[in-house]
Amino acid sequence: FIGAQFVFKDSPTTPCRIVYDCRPTNGALVTPTVTRWCLHKYLLGCSTHPAVTFLDIRQAYNQLVMTPTSSATCCTVLQPPSTPSRPRPRPILVIWVTVAFGLAPSGGALELATAHVALEAEEVLSLLQPPPTQDYDPLKECPALPSIYHSADYDYARPALEACFSKVHNAQEVQLLRKLSSELSWRDYVDDWVVMGHHFLQAVHGRRVLSSCANSHKFTFPLSKCHESWALEAASAATVVGYILTQDDCLRPKISVEPLCSTATKRMASQVLAGLYDPLGKFLEANMHARLIWRKAVLSVKESAPGEPSAASWDRQLSPQVIDEVNDWITQLHKLQPVPRYVP
Prior knowledge:
Layout: E1 2-9, E2 17-21, H1 39-47, E3 51-56, H2 60-65, E4 73-78, E5 92-97, H3 110-127, H4 158-164, H5 171-181, E6 186-189, E7 192-197, H6 200-216, E8 227-228, E9 238-240, E10 243-245, E11 250-253, H7 266-273, H8 284-304, H9 310-313, H10 320-333, E12 339-340
Antiparallel strand pairs: 1-2, 3-7, 3-8, 4-5, 6-7, 9-10, 10-11, 11-12
Helix pairs in contact: 3-6, 7-8, 8-10
């Protein structure tokens, strides 16, 4: 795996999170046959349903760390040096865990436990399909088409969006809605859950049943990390596995890289150019531009030190021209326009 390419990610629940580029380029990692987590299917489901609700398991990372069956839980003791003001400094205990999410069975059986919750929710949902009756009409909760979808940007999906938020009337439509609402449309990737629907009621009803089953198994979801694609609050900072979900139901990349300094090395450029996380390929041009700059960076180092071993070249300083190109690329990243999440 490419250990040189890693990105530091801010996290409100863990002190530090480092995301490595773990593409199986050298055969050291192989695709397993035992994990059910699939990032591509998760994001594909998020993008192909008009109504989507997002949930995030509370402190799932801590469940991995505190479980002895985690992939690799280690402890390191750091002893600060003695100083006149602190002649006997206290040692620092660091607990860290390495988990290859999606590349290996999950630590702490989180993968198995959440799958059990989903199976239970599917069974409950099949028994509680919401029938419109004289006493209870679930369609009363269905709002009119939200104003964010009135924009011309959503003309391409207008029929599907209007059907998603319609209050059906004829018997055939009611029967179809009952069938949809009795099936759980759910995906998860580690601690990120998504309940989807082709109709508003399917997404909301499925979320209620699934979250209730999860709560009974001690899985809870903080309100600050529960979002609805059609009604995202202004103060919320919704993220969808690396993307930022905007108020108008669009996706934009989460940029967490800083410009390079004038003495930047090949290793530093590698880290920065790997900083655009775009698994759906919605910003493919920017990624291709980064690959072009990376080729120039490699060539620049080879020309400055011909015959130098590849392992030693990582700490070789880049040319000013390449550094300027990398920084211009970062500037353009911040100017990328959001793209609609929903693709019919």
